[in-house]
Structure formats: C-alpha cells, structure tokens
Amino acid sequence: MAALILSFLFAFLLSDLPPSSAQPLILSSFNLSDSPWRPDQNQTLLSANNVFAAGFRPAPSSQKLYTFSVWYQNISERTIVWSANDKSLVNGSAALVITASGQLRLNDFSGQNLWPWNASGNPNSTELILDNNGNLNYANWQSFKFPTDTILPNQNMSLIVSKNGKYRFTNSTDLVYDSTDSYWTAPNGNVLQVLNSDGEMVQGNGGSFISADFGANRLRRLTLENDGNLIIYSFDPDLGKWVIVWEAIQQACIVYGTCGPNAICISDGSDSTTTACSCPPGFRPSAGGAKEGCEIKIPIKDARKTKFLQLDYVNYTSGPNNTIQINAQNLTICRHSCYNNSKCLGFGFKYDGQGYCALQLERLLYGYWSPGTETAMFLRVDSNENDTSNFTGMTSLLETICPVNISLPLPPEESSTTTRNIVIICTLFAAELISGVVFFWGFVKKYIKYRDMAQTLGLEFLPAGGPKRFTYAELKTATNDFSNLIGKGGFGDVYRGDLTDHRVVAVKCLKHVTGGDAEFWAEVTIIARMHHLNLVRLWGFCAEKGKRILVYEHVPNGSLDKYLFQPGQPRFTEDYELETGPVSANGMNPILDWNIRYRIALGVARAIAYLHEECLEWVLHCDIKPENILLGDDFCPKISDFGLAKLRKKEDMVSMSRMRGTRGYMAPEWVRSDPITAKADVYSFGMVLLEIVTGTRNFEMQGSLKNSEEWYFPGWAFDKVFKEIKVEDILDSRIKHSYDSRAHFQLVDRMVKTAMWCLQDRPDARPSMGKVAKMLEGTVEIIEPRKPTIFFLSDE
Ligand SMILES: *[C@@H]1O[C@H](CO)[C@@H](O)[C@H](O)[C@H]1NC(C)=O
Ligand SMILES: *[C@@H]1O[C@H](CO)[C@@H](O)[C@H](O)[C@H]1NC(C)=O
Ligand SMILES: *[C@@H]1O[C@H](CO)[C@@H](O)[C@H](O)[C@H]1NC(C)=O
Ligand SMILES: *[C@@H]1O[C@H](CO)[C@@H](O)[C@H](O)[C@H]1NC(C)=O
Ligand SMILES: *[C@@H]1O[C@H](CO)[C@@H](O)[C@H](O)[C@H]1NC(C)=O
Ligand SMILES: *[C@@H]1O[C@H](CO)[C@@H](O)[C@H](O)[C@H]1NC(C)=O
Ligand SMILES: *[C@@H]1O[C@H](CO)[C@@H](O)[C@H](O)[C@H]1NC(C)=O
Ligand SMILES: *[C@@H]1O[C@H](CO)[C@@H](O)[C@H](O)[C@H]1NC(C)=O
Ligand SMILES: *[C@@H]1O[C@H](CO)[C@@H](O)[C@H](O)[C@H]1NC(C)=O
Ligand SMILES: *[C@@H]1O[C@H](CO)[C@@H](O)[C@H](O)[C@H]1NC(C)=O
Ligand SMILES: *[C@@H]1O[C@H](CO)[C@@H](O)[C@H](O)[C@H]1NC(C)=O
Ligand SMILES: *[C@@H]1O[C@H](CO)[C@@H](O)[C@H](O)[C@H]1NC(C)=O
C-alpha cells in the first residue's frame, strides 16, 4: 500500500516538478553517492534543458530486459538516440555503478562490465552528466564518441550501425552491407562531418547539403535505419511526430541485402519503403522464401548448353571482384563474352549505344528492378529451361522513343518487334526524305543534339536516386524571385528558371495539392521515373512550408495549340498557355507540315501508351489537350502534366470535368459518372488527333453547322471523310494546298481512321493506347471505323 502511494506521489512529482530540483527519481547528475543505479529504480538523468533523458529502458522485446539509453524527454515520441548495451540486454539484477576507483561500469547480473570503453575519473569529483545536446559525459568519456544508430546535431560523425546490425555507415562516406559492400557514397564522395543545428550537413572539402526544413528551430537526428537507409528526421511539433527531411536513398531496392542471392527486389513505387522479393525466370525461391534468395531450377552443368533470358530494367551486382565491365559494340558481342566465360552467370546491357556491358561472374547479388537502370539483364539458364521472362517493357520503350533515336542498336532477336521497328523507321525515314534533302540535314543535326541531350541530361542529372529535392530558397534564386512567368495552368503557374548548373528549367508551383510531404515525395519520385523522349522530364521538386513545386526541363517551342489554331480565334475557357514560344517575324508561329503533324501524333500516342502500359495504372493523364503537348527541338512533342491528376483533390477533378462537360476533350464517361479508365485518355487523344488534321478546335468550328443541336465535330468529320468522300473538306485549310495525295494519303488516312476509333462513345469500343500507336504506325490494319456518336449532347 505504501509503495502504491509512493509511486502515485512519484508520478505526481515527475509530471509537475521542474527537472532541476533534486528529487529522488530525477537526477541532474549521477555520482559516487548515487551509485548503484538499478533498472527497477525508475530513475532518470535529465539534461538541464529537459530535452534529453538517460536511464534504464525496458527493451521492446521484453519488459524484464533493459538497455541503458538516452532518449528524448520533452516530446511525445521518446525515441532512443543512444544505448550502452544494445546488443547485450541486461535484466533486473544489473546496475550502473561508479566504483571506489572511479570507474563507471554497467554490470550485468554476473558483474561483467558492458559499458562501452573504459570510463574512469576521480571518484570524489567525477559525475555522469547529460548535456543539453544529448551527449552523456563521464570524465573524458562521452557517448558522442560511441554512437549507436543515431547521430545528433553537433555530434561529430563516426561509425554508426543499424539496430539490426546489418548496415553500417563507415568512413563517414559509405553505407555498407555485409561489412564491405558499399551501396551509397556521400555526395561527391566528401565525408560527412557534422549535422549542424540549422539542419545543414557539413561535408569535408567544403561541401554540404541541407535538410528540407533547413533553418527551422527543430529537433533533428540522423539515423541509420534497419532497412539500410540513412535518414535525417525532424520533429514536427504540429504533427507531433518525426518527419523525414532528407534521406540518402529514395528507392528502397537500391539498398543491398534487401533480398537474398539471385532474388530481385521490386518496389511498387507506391511508397519508398515497401519492397517485395521475387525470383527471376528459371529460378525458384529457396527454402526460406524469395527474401532469403532464389535457386536455379536446372543447375548449369555444361556452359555450352545454355541460353539467356532477358530481364528488362533489372540490375545485379557481383561485387567488384566478380564483375567484368567491357565496352561491347553491340549485344551480340556482349552475349558472346558471357557465353564464352564459363563463370559468367549473366550480363547487363544498355541499349543506349554506349556499349555498357557488365559480365557477372560466380554470383548474382543485390538484384533489383527499376526503370531508372535503363539496363536489361540477361540471365544464363539451361537450354532446356522453358520459363519465359515476365520482366519486359524495354523493347516497347525503345519503340516509342522519337524517331531520332533510330541509330540505336536494335534488340537482339530477329523477332517480329525488330521487323516492326524497321518498318516504323523506314516509314519515318521515307517521310523525312520526301520532305526534302534540306530537312534531312536538319534531321542529322538534330539527331546529334538529341543524342547529347539523352546522354548528358538523361543520365547525368537523374541518377537512380530519383528527383532532386530543391529548397524553396534555391528555386527563388533560380527564378529570380518568381519573376519570369511563362505560363498559367490548371495545376498552377509556371516560371522560367536558371539553375546554377546552367540548366534552364520550367518551375511549376502547384495549387490545390493534397497529401503530406512523404506522400508527395513518393508520387513525385514515380513521375520522375517515367522516362520517355515524348514526356517532359521532371528534374526535381520542392516541398517546403506547404509549398509544392515541380521543376521540369524547359521545352522551348511552346505548346501545340499555338501552332495548330489560328490566332484570333476565341480561346478555350479556363485555358492556359504553358509556354510562350518563339514566333516568326510576322508574329505567327510556323505552320506545321503533314510530316511533322504525323510525327507529333505518333510521339504523343507512344508516350501515352508508355504511361498506360509500362507505368502504373494511375498514370492516366486525364487532361490530354493541345495545351499540354509541348514542342521541343525539331518539333518533337513532349507531354506535360502527366501524373499530376493523382496529386489533385478528387473534388477538383470532378468539378473540373463537370465544368468542361460535353465540350472539349473529356470523354463522355466523365459526364455520365461512369468509371474512368485509360480509355478516357484515348478519347481525348482522338480529339487532339482530329484537331491536328483539321487545324480547328473541336468546339470552335466555323459556320452555321455549329449551332445545330445535333452537331458533333467527330461525327461531322466522319461524314465528310467516309460518306461524302471529301477528305479535303476537313483538312487544315492553311496547308490544304500542300496535301499531296500520293505522299500524304497514307498518313492522313491513318490519322483520321485512328481518331474515329478513339472517339467511339463506348470506352470498350476504343482501342488501347498501345494499339492506337500501332494503328498510327501502320503496323496493324485499321478496319473501317464506325461513326462516332454521342448521346448526351441534348442535355447541354
Ligand atoms: C517503477 O515503475 C514501474 C512501472 O512504471 C512499477 O511497476 C515499479 O514498481 C516502479 N518501481 C519503483 C522502485 O518505483
Ligand atoms: C523541447 O525542447 C526544445 C529545446 O528547448 C524545444 O525547442 C522544443 O520546442 C521542445 N519540444 C517540446 C515538444 O516541448
Ligand atoms: C538475471 O539473470 C540471471 C541469470 O539468468 C538470474 O540468475 C537472475 O536471477 C536474473 N535477475 C532477475 C532480477 O531476473
Ligand atoms: C581504466 O582506466 C584507468 C585510468 O585511465 C586505469 O587505471 C584502469 O586500469 C583501466 N581499467 C581497465 C579495465 O582497463
Ligand atoms: C576521495 O576522498 C576520500 C575521502 O575523502 C579520500 O580518502 C580519497 O583518497 C579520495 N580519492 C581520490 C582519488 O582523490
Ligand atoms: C553527489 O551529488 C549530490 C547531489 O548533487 C551531492 O550532494 C554529493 O555531494 C555528490 N557526491 C559526490 C561524491 O560528489
Ligand atoms: C574505408 O577506409 C578504409 C581505409 O581508408 C578503406 O580500406 C575501406 O575500403 C573504406 N571503406 C569503404 C566502404 O569505402
Ligand atoms: C577482392 O580481391 C582482393 C584481392 O584478391 C581482396 O583483397 C578483396 O578482399 C576482394 N574484395 C571482395 C569484396 O571480395
Ligand atoms: C556486332 O559487332 C560486330 C563487330 O563490329 C559485327 O561483326 C557484328 O556483325 C555486329 N552484330 C550485329 C548483330 O550487329
Ligand atoms: C547496377 O548496380 C551496380 C551496383 O549497385 C551499380 O554500380 C551499377 O551502376 C548499376 N548499373 C546500372 C546500369 O544502373
Ligand atoms: C517446362 O518443362 C518442365 C520440365 O522441365 C515440364 O514439366 C513443363 O510441362 C514444361 N512447361 C511448358 C509450358 O512447356
Ligand atoms: C514475374 O512472375 C513472378 C512469379 O509469378 C512474380 O513473383 C513476379 O512479381 C513477376 N515479375 C514481374 C516483373 O511482374
């Protein structure tokens, strides 16, 4: 009973008394006369500022086992930042003692000392004290010199080890797994020295990087987590929890050891920490499951009787001693090198024409799947193996790239895809040639430009780590305090910016964005992973102080609508101009010829197909219209704003669709509140395609017809082309004269027929976007379309 009253009293004292008062349970220092300190004493040592506390803490695994730790005292999440005995827990018989000779010991039940290092001082004057910055001191000994998995602000960097012991941050530069294998190196290889109180990580050689909440007066810590990621957390007092303000690795699968040997780590991209382990074709999970590793189904006995299975976007490593990197002119050479080496278990190859070929010998470790690798892995299996690879997508990506990449080495097998590729390339090449020799030289010049662009921009600036996180201050400087407005859009205003590395960027400040920081980050990472020559590249983002900003490559020539529709025509309601492009001398944009129009259509179709089929289902664009198709050099089209629909509030999307209703580019199912699928994008694309041919806004047709209740642009176009057989009536009047039925009939015919299929009222009657691209290419036959009709017109 007395004990009960006492403990109530203690609880009362604990909560109400200032920490400095020398109450039995709260110590401001621990000295010889306080010794011994036993786990069941409920005693804590507080720092003078009341932020940190030290003492025995029950281990998560058992209430009867303890660690002697330091944790945060003044916030709700009492996260442990240091422990004396993480690896060897003690029970209630343990004690922290100061011996008569002045040694500080953590004695377990048997009297064995678990305190890290020999901490000794004069017993008459030395005390154990917890500093305001969380450093535990006794004589010359300090906990800051013996960190566990966490480094606090102003603590010098030294070896830290994740709680589970799997991962280490060594030499102040490298994250390593298994003691030797480094999977991350500090920016520029410069050692990390100290995280200062502003949230800046100061590096050796003068470098530094800053956390997203730089400058704010927050509690922060740098922790090496059990999943191998190095993270700076900041305590958000409003949310009452720790938030991530910097992380070394944004794709969890890059961390070594996430999956066992031979297995492939797959992150579904929905958040950066969830991973799954899967076995490659020809392999099965080992006894402990794929997470423990995979074993080959048919062991290779004779290296001559083997073949290779292609795994797109998969990268393995065998460690530096077991990887041979050679420069192979083409896939055949790379494959032969591996085939002829009996130790070679597979090889990685890039289709970018640079000859990257990495042979993996003896072991296959740390496999992961990520489109960012831009690599295909070829795994050696027995020639009797009949598994087929389900890691695909690369070949179709190659196909969907702008025609300028035609000198890429072709995919290996003389498969139908290769033939199809050749057909496409020949068609495009023929189209180029027809339009003139001058154009051809321009084409060659542009090709070099594109190649350089792909090399420098694509590979250098977007490493597998994901998009760069910019600070608001950086973007403010880059955009000259947001002074150069180049567009206003449904998602927000766009400013021109110049980064310190001389890249010109388009900086889009988003409006009405949902979700927290981490959610935003995760989604932006997915968007940034979408690589396609016909998609505007996302370089980075900023999420700070409630601001949500995206940093895109700058596409100089402005949007398609500027070229397609004559000036002076009334503009689309609630419209936006994404870019203001160069204009010719008479103040008008040049008029696009048929070949360019065809190429724009094809590029856009391929990019949407890529979004729908290679990426995740949610990347429905939902807002395809000429304003969102930007034109780069050589009029290579680039779709902007993809993936953003997910970031918008649902109500916004719905009201947006209601507002646009029957007009414009929204598929009928938006108005009918039917489920929205990828086919809604197909409809919008069909409308754009028709506009590319006619040079007219679908709802701004001139003439009296427009006023009729029944009038529907696609239906009207259908009648003209397929009933009256007067194709010329729908062609853009500005370039009608240059329409040469021999040269252009095929292109225009395909565009019109494809558009008609895309504009079918019923979603299931519309082809998939992949099919649409093939229809435009001319690699599939297009059967005569049915007349597009629409049944909701009367309710307008
Ligand atoms: C310490 O606290 C625990 C639970 O909070 C309680 O069961 C125990 O009796 C306390 N011990 C002492 C010595 O006050
Ligand atoms: C904890 O203490 C620090 C330093 O005095 C202060 O900045 C922070 O606001 C405090 N947090 C809470 C939740 O009281
Ligand atoms: C601690 O463990 C030892 C050895 O297992 C045991 O003898 C001792 O009784 C335990 N002490 C308590 C308080 O459980
Ligand atoms: C610890 O250090 C003190 C003084 O530095 C020394 O006298 C003592 O022998 C050392 N003890 C051990 C176990 O190393
Ligand atoms: C500590 O104090 C005691 C008595 O006051 C004295 O005998 C002893 O020598 C002192 N120890 C040291 C190391 O100064
Ligand atoms: C230990 O600390 C207490 C309170 O702070 C003090 O009264 C006492 O003199 C100290 N003892 C030694 C040996 O320093
Ligand atoms: C750390 O440094 C040592 C000595 O310089 C070196 O041998 C070792 O390879 C380094 N470790 C890593 C992971 O870079
Ligand atoms: C690579 O080989 C060298 C020399 O044989 C050896 O010292 C080193 O430990 C090996 N490294 C690994 C990661 O196996
Ligand atoms: C690959 O390159 C080699 C050497 O240049 C050449 O002999 C071979 O024909 C090429 N193979 C293919 C498929 O292009
Ligand atoms: C594959 O992974 C290894 C080790 O992580 C890395 O060094 C290499 O650059 C990666 N290759 C590609 C093409 O991403
Ligand atoms: C694949 O081969 C295995 C035996 O190696 C056989 O049992 C299986 O039926 C084959 N599957 C197919 C689809 O051919
Ligand atoms: C391939 O199939 C395996 C087994 O069915 C599955 O675990 C894995 O996730 C698939 N991989 C891809 C990339 O779809």
From TrEMBL:
Sequence ranges assigned to domain Apple in this UniProt record: 294-383
Looking at the UniProt entry, the stretches that span the membrane are: 422-444
Pfam families per the UniProt record, alphabetical: B_lectin, Pkinase, S_locus_glycop
GO BP term, example: recognition of pollen
- Its main localization is membrane
Q: Spell out the SMART domains in the cross-references.
A: B_lectin, S_TKc
Q: Where in the cell does this protein reside?
A: Membrane
Q: Which residues form the Bulb-type lectin domain?
A: 30-151
Cite the Gene3D superfamilies for this sequence.
Bulb-type lectin domain, Phosphorylase Kinase, domain 1, Transferase(Phosphotransferase) domain 1
Q: What is its EC number?
A: 2.7.11.1
Task: Tell me yes or no: is Membrane among this UniProt entry's keywords.
Answer: yes
**What keywords does the record list, in alphabetical order?**
ATP-binding, Disulfide bond, EGF-like domain, Glycoprotein, Kinase, Membrane, Nucleotide-binding, Receptor, Serine/threonine-protein kinase, Signal, Transferase, Transmembrane, Transmembrane helix
InterPro entries according to UniProt? Bulb-type_lectin_dom, Bulb-type_lectin_dom_sf, Kinase-like_dom_sf, Pan_app, Prot_kinase_dom, Protein_kinase_ATP_BS, S_locus_glycoprot_dom, Ser/Thr_kinase_AS
Superkingdom of origin organism: Eukaryota
Annotated residues for binding of ATP: 508
Which protein, by its recorded name, is this? Receptor-like serine/threonine-protein kinase
